[in-house]
Every structure is written in C-alpha cells, then in structure tokens.
Amino acid sequence: MTTDAESSTRLEEEVTSLPGGARGPGWGALAIVMVGTFITVLDYFITNVAVPAIQADLGATHAQSQLVIVGYGVAFTAGMITGGRLGDLYGRRRMFSLGMLGFTLASGLCAVAQDADALIVFRVLQGAAAALMVPQVLGILGVVYTGAARARAFVVYGLVVGLAGVFGQVIGGALISVDVAGLDWRTIFLINLPVGVVALVLTPRLIPESRGAPGGRLDLAGVVLATVTLAAVVLALIEGQERDWPLWTWLLLVAGVPLGAGFVAHQRRRTRKGLSPLIDLELFRSRRFSVGLAAMLTYFLAMGSFFFLLALYLQQGRGLSPAEAGLVFLTLGGGYFGSSLLSTRLAARLGHRLYAAGPLLLAAGYVLVGLTARWLGTDGHILWLLAPLIVAGIGMGMTTGPLTGAVLAGVDGEHAAAASGAANTVQEGAVAIGVAVVGTVFFPALGEAAAPEDYPHAFGVGLIPLVVFCLASSVIVRFMRSRGERLGR
C-alpha cells in the first residue's frame, strides 16, 4: 500500500487540468460511471416527492409509503461493502454491468407495480442492484485514471453526487406535475429504462475490465455479518426517527454492536489464516484512509440531512409545492456546481487546507440560512434565503469530490472497489444517521401541534447539530497527514 507521505505528495500534484492524464479509454468511462452514480443517488431522493401520489394510486398506508423509501436505502447501504468486494474478485466492469442491468430491470418492475407491497419488494431489489453497481464507480476511476485526470474525475464524482441529491426533488416534482401519458408517479422509475439500456450498450466499449489480485474467494460469512449489521443499524436509524423510537429500533441498534464486533473479529481471523477477507483491515492502517473516513462520516452527517431539513421547512413551513421547493434547491445546486468546477484550482492553491476550508464554509452557510429563516418568519420573501444557500452550496462543492479523492488516494488498485465500497457505505450511512439526529432535535422543537410559525425556530435549532458536524469534519481532516507532514507545510 502507498505510504501516507507518498499519497499526500501524489494527491497534491493531481490538481491541474483535465484530460491528458487519462489512461486508455479517455473520458467515456467517466461519463458512463457517472450516469450510474447519478441515477442511483437520484432514486434515493426522488421518491420522497412521489409519496403522496403513490399513496393515492396504490392505497398505500403511511408505513408502506415509508418502506418504499427505507427499503431502497437499507438495501443500498447494507450491500455496498459486499458489492465492492465482488468487483475486486470478479471484475469491476462486470459487476457494474450486472448492477446496471439489475437496477434497470427493477426500475421497470417498480413502474408496473400494482400494489404497495410489490413496490416495496421491487424497491429493495433496486437498492440491492445499486449496491452492486455504485462501489465499482470509485474503483474504476481509481485504476483507469492517473495524475491530474484522476483528481478531476473524483471532483466530477462529487459534483454528480451533490447534483443528484439537489435535483432529485426538482426532477421528481417536474415529472409528476407534467404527468406524461397519465403515468403519474410511475415516470420517476420509467425514466431509468432508456438511460440503463444506453449505459449497458456502451459499458463494454468504453470501460476496461479491472480486478484485484487473483485467487481470492468471496467471504460468505463476512457477507452475512456485514449485511445484517448494516441493515440493522440503518433500518433502526431511519425507522426510529420516523416512528418515534419504538423498543424494537433500540434493540436493533444494540444488536449492531456485537454484530459489528463479530464481523471485525471474523475478518481478522480470515486474514491470520491467509484467507481472503471481505474487506482487508490493513486498509485502516493508512492514516489517510481511516482518518479520512471519519472526516467523510461527519461531513455527510451534515450534508445529506440538510436536504431533508430544508425540504420540510420549505414545503410544510412555508407552504411551497414540491416544484417550487425544487426551484429553491436549484440555488443550492448552483453554488455546488460552481465551486465543484473550481475545486481543482483551489486545491492547487490551498493544498490539503481545502478539505478543512470546505466544511467551515458549509458551517457558515448553515448559520446564515438559519438566521435568515428566523428573520423572515412566515411572511418574509423566500428569495432572501438564496444567498445563504449559495454559500452552503459552495462549501459542499469544495468538499465532496476533493475529500473523497483524498481518502482513496493511497489505496492499492487490488483493493480499489472494496475501499470505495467502505467509503460509499460511510457516505450513505451518514445520511441516515444525520436524518435521525436532526429528527431528534427538529421535531421536539417543532412541537406536536405544529403550525407554520413554529417552523423557522425548529429549522434553526435543527441546523445546530449540522454546524457541529461541519466543524468536526474540518478538524478531523487536519489529522489525515502525519504530524511531520503537517509541520512541513
């Protein structure tokens, strides 16, 4: 494995311009894997907008409607470590193609579901397919591109993740409002079909095959332990916040501790015996990787849950329609897009300091958003929120792609997909944890008899833990390098 000093030096050289540094397939590979990234993240958020239409059409209960969202999220998060390992063992392009095929087929099944229970099952299948596809993305980028091209590819990845989250509400609201051919909510799944077919046709032409060291076998016991552990924790966090923390959610959280410890012990035991583990724990000996994952965790705790909080404030507190709220989200996306495009130039000037500056700016944006919302009350014009949202979006764009690239910079090619599976798991898991944390602060502040005038205060209170997470991420990233490296700057 590359040493932290070597990877730090290499990363800070990877901040010039684009193409030129690509090896082999040019930018077609990047385009295809970004399509896969966009549609899987989009489908995490887009369904929120469609819940009322699904309830009306299928007669879904509130619990069933939540499971349409939760089923996808749990399967997606719980399967990514396994998906990453499968890519290392059997080929990243092959697993990406299988994941895309499964995702496309499951999307078609979701679109023709005739009752809520069937839709829930198909959404779980869709999430499982996404878990097979997404970990291959960062693995493919890490081995296909080198030098400045790799740095820019990771920036594009961060840009696509953020824009998919931001535009999920916009696209979903637009599709449902237009109601193409009277298909209503089903269009949010049907749109994946032509995209998936085109990606499947182009993948073998544009993406070279890559895999880890030959000879390993899939750790089936590790698969079960990892999947059950992650599913228990993520399901408890998502459903706990939604259902006011019944006893079974606490039992699942408690069970996650011995299950997780058992998984780690099992991985160590396989390593000692010379067997192939599901995830090589040697990865965590790298300061850049292990500390970087902690920084990613705190950052995505603050980023993903903000979308949830802002949507509640705009739609329930200010009475905006999904389409109108989506237009406000576009402002956030504008700041995100602009700073993402400039992040490689900023990295050239700031070096490692960029990863600390981004979360700090995001924290400042959140503070400004919260103060502005309190000042506006229920009568002030929503346009006053746009400038603070741009600031927050700039902070997100400065952090998402560059931090992901920094975390994975020192990982050997043979572990690329497994490491990206761990990074993706942290990313998606942090969104679930962040929403749970925000819910425990926001809803008590809102009160049971919530009125529109209660939302500005509750919104501001809900932003407090997000600011804390941003500040924590800014501090943690400083320890990704050794003390000697920090003093040498």
- N-to-C SSE string, H for helix and E for strand: HHHHHHHHHHHHHHHHHH
Secondary structure tally: strands: 0
Instruction: Give the structural class.
Output: mainly alpha
Largest sheet: none
Task: Furnish the topology, listing elements before pairings.
Elements: H1 4-13, H2 28-58, H3 62-78, H4 80-90, H5 92-111, H6 116-144, H7 147-178, H8 187-190, H9 192-206, H10 220-242, H11 247-272, H12 287-317, H13 322-350, H14 354-376, H15 386-408, H16 416-446, H17 455-476, H18 483-488
Helix pairs in contact: 2-3, 2-6, 2-7, 2-9, 3-6, 3-10, 3-16, 4-5, 4-6, 4-16, 5-6, 5-9, 6-7, 6-16, 7-13, 7-15, 10-11, 10-16, 12-15, 12-16, 12-17, 13-15, 14-15, 14-17, 16-17
Summarize the structure in short.
This protein is an all-alpha fold and 489 residues long.
What does this molecule look like?
Helix 2 runs parallel beside helix 7 and helix 12 runs antiparallel to helix 15 (386-408). The longest helix is centred in the N-terminal third of the chain and has 32 residues, at 147-178. Helices cover 78% and strands 0% of the residues. It has 489 residues and is mainly α.
Characteristics:
489 residues; globular; single chain; mainly alpha; 0% strand
